[in-house]
Design brief:
Elements (H helix, E strand, L loop, with lengths): L22 H7 L2 H33 L15 H23 L2
């Protein structure tokens, strides 16, 4: 979030990401209250984002259109054999091809 928004906006709250070559070592060196404070801050940020981007828009839609929720989707396959193969191909493409780009 710090990289997306203006860097000075969250500079005092969110530290820039630092490389952690020895993540377990740094976790063991720091105290329990430090970890608890970081977890509480992360939880507060995620709860605020969840409220702002999920709860508030849903409440606004529900207030404006009371009969619109819950949405009932009617999904179906036109040609199941082709659509299932296409879905498998998309998953394989996303899982295998990034590995191929990394290899020399």
């Amino acid at each position: 979030m710090r990289q997306v928004l203006h860097p000075d906006l969250f500079a005092s709250i969110i530290r820039p990401q630092e490389p952690h070559p020895d993540l377990l070592g740094s976790l063991l060196q720091e105290s329990g209250p430090t970890h608890a404070r970081r977890m509480a801050m992360s939880l507060a940020i995620y709860l605020a984002l969840l409220t702002a981007f999920v709860y508030v828009p849903t409440a606004m839609v529900e207030a404006a259109f009371p009969d619109a929720l819950p949405v009932q989707l009617r999904l179906f396959y036109v040609v199941p054999q082709l659509q299932v193969m296409q879905a498998c191909a998309c998953v394989c493409e996303q899982a295998i091809f990034p590995v191929l780009y990394i290899l020399p």
